[in-house]
Design brief:
Layout: H1 3-14, E1 17-21, H2 28-43, E2 47-51, H3 58-61, E3 69-70, E4 80-84, E5 104-109, E6 120-123, H4 130-139, H5 146-159, H6 170-180, H7 186-194, H8 199-210, E7 213-215, E8 218-223, H9 225-231, H10 242-246, E9 253-259, E10 264-271, H11 278-283, E11 287-288, E12 292-298, H12 301-316
Parallel strand pairs: 1-2, 1-4, 2-3, 4-5, 5-6, 8-9
Antiparallel strand pairs: 7-8, 9-10, 10-12, 11-12
Length: 319
């Protein structure tokens, strides 16, 4: 057992009230990690409050414990703050102003770009997901049960793309198998996450794929405000769209540029075949992993799309 894990176990044992926070627009890993950690701490008789800038998207709100995540900060005088699945502190969004950073911060994450902003930092860049780390922590604290295992499984399943992405390791598969042994209904989790799309999402996806631009070894997709309005879709409906651009034969890297109401562009990047897009995301103030990264930038969509094409062309031709 590592020194930092021992420190965290001691803090849990000796304190009563815990605040859990993650990044804005939480994904399956952040949601699964937060809820699993909260359920585990509650098993020990601790008081826990999960506080995020944004609520779970439609695909995760179907799970029965999603209601544990709040977007308002009630009177909760926490002893310890867990910040999970968050590489930099600004990623928690506008709730940062309501966090008391004088309290002990435990930073648990799997992004290699993590800025280690916590008083205790447990960062494992070789893990597929933060849920894998939370599993190791909880396994030393409590007897896991079906509910806790389910939310940990959600985190691993989604961050590995159902075990299809390069971050899938023997360790992530081993942990997933152990979680299934606690009674996780894998088919139900997959149905909720991957096979319950609203019609607006499918119509929007068709529109996005019609407009995809294919280049030598890379592709770019766009989602405009007008496209969302046309189909009555939400930004959350574009989750995982970026992977379609990478599924095309011969494509080594892809990007999707999403136009937001505030004049910002949200960019997601994916790659394969040894191509790294992490440095490109960092160039624009973003972060992530070698094959999955992103950033947000202010600008005109078409102008920036042309700029990004030039950047991606240089990157894919290195490999």
């Amino acid at each position: 057992m590592g020194k930092k894990i021992k420190e965290v176990l001691s803090l849990i044992k000796n304190n009563k009230k815990f605040l859990i926070v993650s990044h804005k627009n939480p994904d399956g890993d952040s949601i699964g990690s937060e809820i699993a950690l909260a359920l585990g701490l509650r098993k020990l008789g601790k008081k826990v409050y999960i506080y995020n800038q944004d609520p779970p998207s439609n695909r995760y709100s179907r799970f029965d414990k999603a209601g544990l995540i709040h977007t308002d900060k009630k009177e909760f005088n926490e002893d310890i703050i867990f910040i999970v699945d968050c590489a930099e502190i600004d990623r928690i969004g506008n709730i940062k102003d309501e966090i008391n950073f004088k309290k002990t911060i435990i930073n648990i994450d799997h992004h290699i770009s993590n800025e280690k902003f916590g008083d205790i930092n447990i960062v494992k860049g070789d893990y597929s997901s933060t849920a894998e780390i939370i599993y190791e922590l909880l396994d030393k604290l409590i007897d896991l049960d079906k509910d806790i295992a389910t939310y940990l499984y959600i985190g691993i399943l989604t961050d590995t793309g159902s075990f299809r992405y390069p971050n899938t390791t023997s360790h992530s598969l081993k942990v997933a198998a152990e979680l299934v042994d606690y009674g996780v209904i894998t088919s139900q989790v997959s149905e909720f996450v991957w096979f319950s799309d609203p019609p607006a999402r499918i119509k929007l996806l068709g529109d996005v794929l019609q407009r995809i631009t294919l280049h030598k070894n890379f592709s770019i997709m766009i989602v405009t405000k007008d496209m969302l309005k046309k189909w009555g879709a939400k930004e959350e409906d574009t989750e995982e769209f970026v992977n379609y651009g990478l599924s095309i034969k011969g494509i080594k890297a892809t990007a999707i540029i999403k136009e937001k109401d505030d004049g910002m562009l949200k960019v997601s990047l994916r790659s394969k075949n040894g191509v790294s897009i992490q440095e490109l995301a960092a160039e624009y103030g973003g972060g992530g992993h070698k094959t999955a990264a992103g950033f947000t930038i202010r600008g005109d969509l078409e102008t920036f799309k042309n700029e990004l094409e030039g950047k991606l062309e240089k990157i894919v031709n290195k490999f």
